[in-house]
Prior knowledge:
glycoprotein; 29 helices; elongated; N-acetylneuraminate 9-O-acetyltransferase activity; alpha/beta; transmembrane; transmembrane helix; Rossmann fold
Amino acid sequence: FKGGDTCEYLLSSGRFLGEKVWQPHSCMMHKYKNSEAKNCLIDKHVVFIGDSRIRQLFYSFIKLINPQVKEEGIKHGNIPFEDKSASIKVDFLWYPEVNGSMRQRIKSWTEGSVAKPHIIVVGAATWSIKIHNGSSEALAQYKINITSIAPLLEKLAISSDVYWVLQDPVYEDMLSESRKMITNEKIDAYNEAAVHILNSSSRNSKAKVKVFSVSKLIAQETIMKSADGLHLPESSRDTNAMILMNVYCNKIMKPIDGSCCQPQPPLTLIQKIAFCFFTLSIIGYLIISLIHRNNYRKNKSCTDLESGEEKKPAISTPNVSTLEMLLQCFCKLGLIMTYFYLCDRANLFMKENKFYTHSSFFIPIVYILVLGVFYTENTKETKLLNREQTDEWKGWMQLVILIYHISGASTFLPVYMHIRVLVAAYLFQTGYGHFSYFWIKGDFGVYRVCQVLFRLNFLVVVLCIVMDRPYQFYYFVPLVTVWFMIIYATLAIWPQIVQKKANGNCLWHFGLLLKLICLLTCIYFLSYSQGAFEKIFSFWPLSKCFELNGNVYEWWFRWKLDRYVVFHGMLFAFIYLALQKRQMISEGKGDPLFSNRVSNVLLFISIVSFLTYSIWASSCKNKTECNELHPSVSVVQILAFILIRNIPGYVRSVYSSFFAWFGKISLELFICQYHIWLAADTKGILVLIPGYPMFNVLVSTFIFVCVAHEISQITNDLAQIVVPKDNSTLLKRLLCIAGFFSGLHFFSAMQDQSRH
């Protein structure tokens, strides 16, 4: 940790990920779109002063504002550019040498009431080397000229952003005869002179002229691809322009995936209150622990000095009280949330951009699959989709999704489409699991609903407070929460049809199917009526939960993407339980699910269907078109997997305890990755150990998994306290929770008012 100024790192150091992706040291670089660049530079005046290399940078910069610009200006003259829609002016001023003319132009901005440019980018040296044939006298004159210009640049730097661009190396073998005197040795000498003079003249660190030295590093890697050995290839100068845009615009636009040059966000009122609460919990727990420890010492067995016999204490060690358990949970949670905040809100740890390669995704996938096979055990029961098997299913899916996120594989469409099926499979299990519970148990009590809602939402609510993020930001939890409530409402609304009632009269099965058809109709209507959907979720207080960036479009998109799969899960559970009740399937240990002939046919169809879907997903060319088909066809691969996994009896009778362990904490893993494994709200990668990528991933992964496991235990412990079985006590707790959210809403409103 060397301080919070990531701008210095952005301007001076970094490395290439692959051939074209530049990774600054310690921070993430945002890729600015034209609209973002315009919003940042609105009413701004930018000036580039220098030679043909600075002209290249000028063109790359203005192409970020308007990609249609062509490089057809006067080569050895001034070139103006203006975007009238955003009142942006960008000028290139032809001053190929650091001399009196350049000094006079810079001086004109420091005198009188002349409007100063907001950004000034200066650099030149190769012309001086070329014209004077690389003489030492020219270098001495260069030093004198920069010394005279430096105070003027310092003066401008008080109110403007001033950058001195160091000279890039050349590819000497490709230089023409007229440029042979421009050697890397000479360029290094000129750069050293410029850096020494500019740094020594800086008296005020806030007004320091920023040295743009990162272009040298970029050029060292790419100058071999130069057309003439002097000028950088287009991709390299575009990278330089993007760096320049990040240096200036990140502090204005505050992009999530642009951590370079961004100041640490100030603590909000709610975050301060949360900090005080966790601090008091830690203090309270320590006090109670000390009291109990002293009591235990007093009552501890001691030896009678007269008889030499051991006296037993009259009072046994007291059991852990509810208050102590509550404080213990909040104490641990407070320490964990501190780690979350330090990782993804404080500028303490480094962050890096993701970079996808096939090996970075598929090698870890193969590795964890091999690990999973080594931990194969027999299941306690051999029913279709038994508990061990569903935990295993959640586990390997979650691990694949984690690798998908950290490797940045969303840029590779075939992988993206298969991951979409895994997310759909989670929701399929939501439909299957909750439907099975309500259908078999017939338990529609408030206790069950509160237990599920608490376990799903506790961590996300805490993160919304600590990390200052909206509820919809953690989109998967709102998704499963809403679908749970839809399943509950569908089955709980009169007439309540459960297995016990349906066994007495088969007509109830048709009644349930009618309910499911009504549900499907509602889903179909809402998926094709964005206006109706947005009206429903724009009503207060739903709007507070489901709005993101001021609208519910993101929520509608997420819901629509897997709109049918929960219904498919409910329907599958209904058909399976009906077949099981009529003993039409065999679930004995080692027995195939159906007769041998039927099992073989279904197994063949399942394998063909599974492979067909994979072939289709791998041939996708357009993400939008494939997303349109996904809700209707994702169930094909899910059902195919279930049948392949369950039809052969010997396959159904075993499971991977390795995957099942991860499956039990899959929700916590999915949520925790946002801040303590990935970084910048999943846009980048957390770097605890810079310079050693593999070791960093190992360490951060170990901490991440331990934290997820601990949070799972804390959630289970708190669920027993916050959601008791006694109805009168539960009602009191619900009133307290309602009061908590009312207070949260009040403080949130105060916070929003102070921001505006």
